[in-house]
Each structure stands twice: as C-alpha cells, then as structure tokens.
Amino acid sequence: MMTSNPIDHDSSDSDTAGIRLAEAARETDNAAWLDDFTIELRLLEVPGAAIGDAVASAREFLSDSGARAEESFGSAARYAVELDLPTLPEDKSSNREVLLTNGIGLIGLVVLGQTSYPLAGGDDGLAVRLWMVVSLGVTLLLLGLMPRVVSVLVRARNRPLTVGLIVAGVSFGGIGPVLLSVWWGQAVLLSIPALPVAIGAGILLLAPAIWNQVRQNLQKDLIIEPGTGAATLPSRGVRLLAVGANWIMVVYGAISFVLTFALYPSN
What we know:
The protein is mainly alpha-helical. The chain has two domains: 10-83; 93-221 and 233-263, no CATH class. The protein is 74% helix and 6% strand. The protein has eleven helices and four strands. Strands 1-2 form a two-stranded antiparallel ribbon. It has a two-stranded antiparallel ribbon with strand order 3-4. Strand 3 and strand 4 (231-232) form a beta hairpin. It is elongated. The N and C termini lie far apart (86 Å). The model has no long low-confidence stretch (mean pLDDT 77). Keywords: Membrane, Transmembrane, Transmembrane helix. The chain crosses the membrane at residues 98-117, 129-150, 162-184, 190-211, 240-264.
C-alpha cells in the first residue's frame, strides 16, 4: 500500500503559497504602474479616449504575458513620452483661468492668516505692516511658477528627496521678505478692520476651490474604455490626489485659522 509523505505535501503547499504571493505582488506593482502611466499621459495633455486605448493595450499585454510592467515597458514617464500620442490643443485661456483662480485663493489664504492673529487676541483692527505687503507680493510672484512646479511635484510624489529640494528652493526664495521683516518690516502702513477683511479673505479662499471643482466635474475629458465606449474612472488614489490638490489651500487655511485661536497665548 502506498503512503504519502507529509514532507511532500508541505513542500507543495509552500510552493503554491509562494506562487500566489508572487502573483499578487506582480498585480499590485502593475496596477501602480498603470496609475502612474495614466497620470503621465494626463500631464502630457493626451485626450481621454487615447489614454483609454493606451492603458487598455498595456493592461491586456500584461495580463496575457504575465510580465511586470516595469520590466516590459520601463518607467511610466518614459513610456508615455515614447508613445508620442496626439495631445489636446493648448488652451491658453484655460491656463490663465487656472492661474487666476489659484492666485485669488492664495491671496485669500495669506490675508486670512494675517487676520487670525488680531482676531484671536480680541483686537478689532488689523495693522498692515510692510512685511505683510512684501510677503504677499513674493507669494504672487511665486504663483507664476506654479504651473511648472505642480507637474514636477506630481511626478516626484514618490521621491521625497526631489520634493524636499523643491520645498527648500521655495523656502530659500522667502529669505528676502524674512530679512526685510527683521529690519523694516514692522513699519505700519495703515490699520483696517480685521473681521470684514477675514470674511472677505475666506470668500477669496473658498470660491476658487468650488469653481474649480464644479468646472472639473462639468468639463471632464473622460478616459474611454475601447470597444465599449464606457467611461472608466481613475483609481481612488488618483481621484484623491486630484481632489486634494484642489482643496489643499482651503484645508490648510482652515486648520491654521483654528490653531491660531486654540494656541494663542491669551487663550
């Protein structure tokens, strides 16, 4: 009578488990690569239908071959460029609109932060100092660099060193206003009521985010699944990234305003 060897069963089970783990890791890596690939094509202004075709072709190849995307296609950024897909015509008016709305929101954020201090201290007046005006001017100047910086930050989201260098560069650019505030920045130019200014700043901060969100929802260039004509949604991570980028100034402004009241010395 033949008997089975328990060691053989253990070896077979461990091999099967190892294969399943390797397959799960491959699928996870490929899904992340496809997300990166989709983002890169978006940054290149490729139409949604063309993105759908490219992503579907890559997904089908990976499914049939059982290969890893990085090994087959290389980096998502390089492969997106190599495909040389047609791009949407440049909409200069749209670019100006994005710059304008971001600028308005940024002004609201800066001014709201300045009004939080006197309001937290129970002071009805806001003393407009020289360093505030200079800081606002530098902020608007840096705003002109945002269209380029945003694309770099999106591509570098998984590279902390690159993000750190960008942040360090922006911080270095703010040394001038800091030095000015130390020497002459406390000079008061005028005094204005703090509460109405805070309300106006809050509106300036909130309105662009609402406008951009509505505009994005109404004018989506959807990614179309080839063959079915159905629109495919990006992954949850990509959607969260888009929403977060739109509302980050509002969230930051709200948290800063609340923390100023909570941590003010007299409180």
